[in-house]
Amino acid sequence: MGINGILIVLWLLILGFSWWMPSLTEPTLTLGVRIPVDKQSHPVVHAAIRQYRWGIVGMAAVLVAGMAIFSHLLAWPAVAEGGTLGLVGVLTVNYVLARQRIMCAKVDEQWYVGLSQAVVADTDLRMRPPRVPWLWLMPSFVLLVATGLVGLYQYPRMPPQLAIHFGATGQPDAWLTKTPLHAFLPLYIELATSALFWAISIWIARSVQRTDPNRFAVSVAQQRVFRQIMGRAMGVAVTLMDLGLTASCFTSWGLLGHVSNLVLWGPLLGAAVLAGAAVWSGQNGSRLAVRTGDGKQRDGRRNLEKSDNFSSISQGLNPGQDHPVVARDDDRFWRGGLVYFNRQDPAWFVPKRFGIGWTVNFGHPLVWLALLLLIVFISGIPFLLGHGG
Amino acid sequence: MRFVLEIAEGDSLYQQIRNQVILALAYGNLSPGDGLPPIRALAADLSINLHTVHKGYEMLEQEGYIHLNRRIGAVVAQPRSPGKDLGLWQQNLRIRLAEAWTQGMSRETITQTVQAILADFVPVDTGRSGAEV
């Protein structure tokens, strides 16, 4: 498969994911718009999703036809990069147009008038969070330590010039003089990447909850299982990626004469595992089938919370009030349904509304500081390695 | 336990936090010795200002329902004798009952309602075994 093939697969994957996305998000977050629970089957909601999906089918058709006619242009890197950017741009416009229909109906028909809006949380998810999947993180840790030991053993035997870059044919085309910094550079990269993945999978267990009051018990159980699944998927993904990075260490240390396929396939398979787990679970676990307490829950506590009927929650907590409670309409904190900006919320990361995984809270001043430090760090890497200027 | 904070409620959010902890204690969803989430974590889960949660927790501490500790966080306190709050509680109850009375509710209905509410409460110090009774 040449570069053209990879590009076509990538573009069709992006389109496929986008087409599927409305089925992966939570039921009261359609195309990034918060809707009351009883509006899920509203004709406008269905029409907007149909419009969004037909738009994507149209894009795919244009893309495939364009590929067939202009396939020779794809060899130009500018077409590859510009094409991907253009695709994302058109996808965004398609999304904005479709969600606009729901927003209009929501305002015109006053969907939230007369509804009591609530923010809800389950303390159990905080006080007894899912366990960090240490066992699933162990293989990558063992692999990293083993790679480090091999590197230390091999160091005196390494050639004085180390191959650090390989051409398309797999032959080295750039070298560095052997020093501990240069020799172990791929190992440092492996260590840094692994540490990041370990930190994320530990963090996932304690990440912020977004519980739906209309499916309280189900929503909490889904988020619990989601954290377990994603934590384990991170463990598998980091192991696969480390296999690739270990292979590149071995190549650079002269233990492998060629570039191993693992260097490419390790990270790719790792990404596929993560994407698969996320699609299987749905955003924030919204697609997971879970069992919830049917009156008998652990601790044998008297359970007034067993019913998932939201009005009974409201009654139990505020006796005498039987008006339905729905999740707060928090659209004003979400620019375009994609960018979260809430100064009140102390959370750094929150589950995305329309998409897979988490996004940052741009209303948190420290998030801006962290982004700034990240940019400084990334642009400083060449200087750290002595290649700057 | 569950927090359900209604945005447009008459009570402010911190008042609702305080009320719901007390209700959870009465219903046995929370027992003395149980921990409550750290202020920042609960505020993030509810996506509200952490000062709101802080205020709710402080109220609960002042009224003796929880202990706040920098090291171990918020922990539900052992039940204490009513003592000095009794007069205030009676005064509040008098107002609530008077509201019902002046709205024309009969003595029987009021008594039945109070008894129905009390029937759902479990002893606070044995909250964990409440379901087995």
Give the topology, please:
The complex is a heterodimer of chains A (389) and B (133).
Chain A: H1 3-24, E1 29-30, E2 33-34, H2 43-70, H3 77-108, E3 116-122, H4 124-127, H5 134-154, E4 161-166, E5 172-177, H6 180-183, H7 185-205, H8 216-252, H9 262-281, H10 310-317, E6 325-327, E7 334-335, E8 339-340, E9 349-351, E10 358-360, H11 365-384
Parallel strand pairs in A: 3-6
Antiparallel strand pairs in A: 1-2, 4-5, 7-8, 9-10
Chain B: E1 2-6, H1 13-27, E2 35-36, H2 39-46, H3 50-62, E3 66-69, E4 73-76, H4 86-102, H5 107-120
Antiparallel strand pairs in B: 2-4, 3-4
Helix pairs in contact in B: 1-3, 2-3
Proportion of β residues of chain A? Answer: 5-15%
Beta-strand level of the residues of chain B, as a percent range? Answer: 5-15%
User: How confident overall, as mean pLDDT of chain A?
Assistant: 85
The structural class of chain B is mainly alpha
Report the end-to-end length of chain B measured between terminal Cα atoms: 20 Å
Low-confidence stretches of chain A: 294-322
CATH structural class of the largest domain in chain B: Mainly Alpha
- Gross geometry of chain A: globular
